UniProtKB/TrEMBL annotation:
One cellular component (GO) term of this entry: membrane
Pfam families assigned: COX1 (PF00115)
Keyword Mitochondrion found: no
Family: Belongs to the heme-copper respiratory oxidase family.
Official protein name in the record: Cbb3-type cytochrome c oxidase subunit I
Length: 603
């Protein structure tokens, strides 16, 4: 596409965003209740937001500023993004079943994607990485945080409810822009093929207009995350109940607070990098070009955001595990203060390790050595958490419910992902393995084997709160075992592929030397693909169970996890109990509890 067409698309998108801004400013009384004076009330008190009932139907979801509603919308958005990113990787893994490019080439020809099957593979690789990190990872954590943080700290709502709503509504247009290249292929707009790191000078030279749209969409998601981070920090500092202080603040809130600090310092830098990249692509500036700027400068700026982003994604899941796991071990979290301190230490150290992604770029060896030292040091607070989780389970009364199984799976996968990362922190090892599938296996043990597992633990644990019902426990355990087996088959095969020298980001492969057997490489790719399909099956089971149980599952009752018995009932379940009792008092029907450890109708 020529420069004039790209400029036209840019102007069109600017007009669209301006129209959205004007529409938002013209909406009068766009929330269904007006805040009254006063801070967060205690449980059982009349809410400060109670002047009008919410409207029904679609209008409720379009106009709501209730933190619980917004949390559920974040969750639905995250699931949709997860499906998109998952289907993209299924296509990629299907292509890698055989050495030749015989799956995506016909699809690319039918769609009209530039560069044939390899171009479509690069586009899928790009959309998979961007979607999972920016459209699924951060929003799904925001879903938990929006719904639960005010409940856990005894607040009525977020500190800035309208900003909370705006932060969410920036995400759908962001997603549409990021995916736009796939929708507009018939009109001559190819999807971005820059990979999720968007390295220069390639990202400046590639002409796809879909890349410009993707960069604009990424900018919107960054603004959304920054607005949300400010809101969470303000909420925890100013809206907590009188009985909540720093000593008894729950561990999930601690991790969200730390994550929000990381977002506040890293995402604005990403926004600046994206603007400079757009200027280089469309207006002939030279921020990152070889002639005027520096491609290495781009990597420094990108990874100063990019590595804290990993901890932005992993710290809240660590908080979920630290919160949920003790409930089913029958005892309080061991070493609570040390878990908090290690969370803060990870947050600080995360800004000092970015250049370990750049060991192979030829930067000064003295700089490499310093980053190697900090990269090895950051493993210590992570190890502190692992030992705390294991010690919490030691001699505990463990109940192997679905949330507990996913917590245990998280710990196991996190250990493998963490240990393999320590090897990559060593410069000599990294120089050998950096551009191989070993890095892919290590990274996915963390983001899928650990982060996703913690997310599922949280979804199952808090399911009775946001649905009022209990899921089918047999299907939940089928989901767990398919994912536990699938993740380890897939990502262990990737680690072995890396040891065999298989380069990452390639759509085809060819080995025929005495050192590396093509048959072995293909067998490992087949294993990785079978594991991915096993996870696909487990994901379908999860979605069916989640939706079907929402409508037809047995009512959960007042104490679905029998937490009062062990004295570990959290504030959110106290709030839920009072909500149910209030509904019964007002004329609703009472129901018995249906716990995962007791008999239920769904068995």
């Amino acid at each position: 596409m020529d420069v004039s067409a790209q400029l036209a698309l840019t102007v069109l998108m600017g007009v669209f965003l301006a129209a959205v801004a004007v529409l938002l400013t013209r909406v009068e009384d766009w929330r269904s209740y007006t805040p009254l004076a006063g801070g967060g009330g205690a449980y059982g008190e009349e809410s400060a937001y109670a002047t009008e009932e919410k409207p029904a139907g679609l209008i409720r979801w379009l106009t709501t500023v209730d933190h619980k509603d917004i949390g559920m919308m974040y969750g639905a958005y995250g699931v949709i993004a997860f499906v998109w990113g998952g289907l993209a990787v299924i296509l990629m893994r299907t292509e890698l079943l055989t050495p030749a490019g015989d799956v995506l080439a016909p699809m690319a020809e039918a769609m009209g994607v530039a560069n044939g099957g390899e171009g479509l593979y690069n586009a899928l690789l790009t959309t998979h990485g961007i979607t999972m990190l920016f459209l699924f990872g951060t929003p799904i954590i925001a879903a938990f945080a929006n719904y639960l943080i005010p409940l856990l700290i005894g607040a009525d709502d977020m500190a800035f409810p309208r900003i909370n709503a705006i932060a969410f509504w920036l995400l759908p247009p962001g997603a549409l822009l990021i995916w736009a290249g796939f929708f507009f292929v018939p009109f001559g707009v190819d999807p971005s093929q820059l990979s999720w790191t968007m390295y220069t000078p390639l990202s400046i030279e590639q002409p796809e207009a879909g890349a410009d749209l993707m960069l604009l969409g990424l900018h919107l998601t960054g603004v959304s995350a920054t607005m949300g981070a400010i809101n969470f920090i303000a909420t925890i500092f100013t809206e907590a109940g009188d009985d909540v202080n720093w000593a008894n603040l729950d561990i999930f809130s601690w991790t969200i607070l730390t994550q929000s600090g990381l977002i506040l310092f890293s995402f604005p830098l990403l926004g600046s990098v994206l603007i400079m990249l757009l200027l280089d692509r469309n207006f002939a500036t030279t921020f990152f070009t070889v002639e005027g700027g520096s491609p290495i400068l781009y990597q420094h700026l990108f990874w100063f955001f990019g590595h804290p982003e990993v901890y932005i994604l992993v710290l809240p899941p660590m908080g979920i595990v630290s919160y949920v796991l003790p409930r089913f071990a029958g005892r309080k979290l061991f070493g609570f203060k040390f878990v908090v301190y290690s969370t803060l230490a990870i947050g600080v150290l995360s800004f000092g390790v970015w250049a370990h992604h750049m060991f192979s770029t030829g930067i000064d060896p003295r700089i490499r050595a310093s980053f190697m030292a900090v990269s090895l040091a950051i493993a210590i607070p992570s190890a502190v958490k692992v030992f705390n989780w294991i010690t919490t389970m030691w001699n505990g009364r463990i109940r192997l419910t679905a949330p507990m199984l996913f917590c245990i799976g998280f710990v196991q996968n996190f250990i493998i992902g963490g240990v393999t990362g320590v090897f990559l922190a060593s410069i000599p090892v990294d120089l050998v393995l950096h551009d191989t599938y070993y890095v892919v296996g290590h990274f996915h043990y963390i983001v899928m084997g650990a982060i996703a597992f913690a997310g599922f633990a949280g979804l199952y644990y808090w399911y009775p709160i946001y649905t009022g019902r209990m899921y089918q426990r047999t299907l939940a355990k089928v989901h767990f075992w398919t994912w536990m087996v699938g993740t380890n088959i897939t990502f262990l095969a990737m680690l072995l592929l890396g040891y065999e020298g298989m380069p990452r980001r390639y759509a085809t492969y060819e080995f025929g030397t005495e050192l590396v057997s093509l048959t072995l490489i293909q067998a490992l790719h087949v294993a990785a693909t079978l594991g991915a399909f096993l996870m696909l099956f487990g994901g379908v089971v999860f979605l069916y169970n989640f939706v079907q149980s929402w409508y037809e599952g047995p009512e959960a009752g007042l104490d679905p996890w029998d937490l009062e018995e062990v004295g570990l009932e959290g504030r959110e379940f106290v709030w839920n109990d009072q909500r149910i009792r209030t509904a019964v008092t007002d004329g609703g029907e009472s129901s018995g509890a249906a716990t995962e450890d007791g008999p239920t109708d769904d068995d």
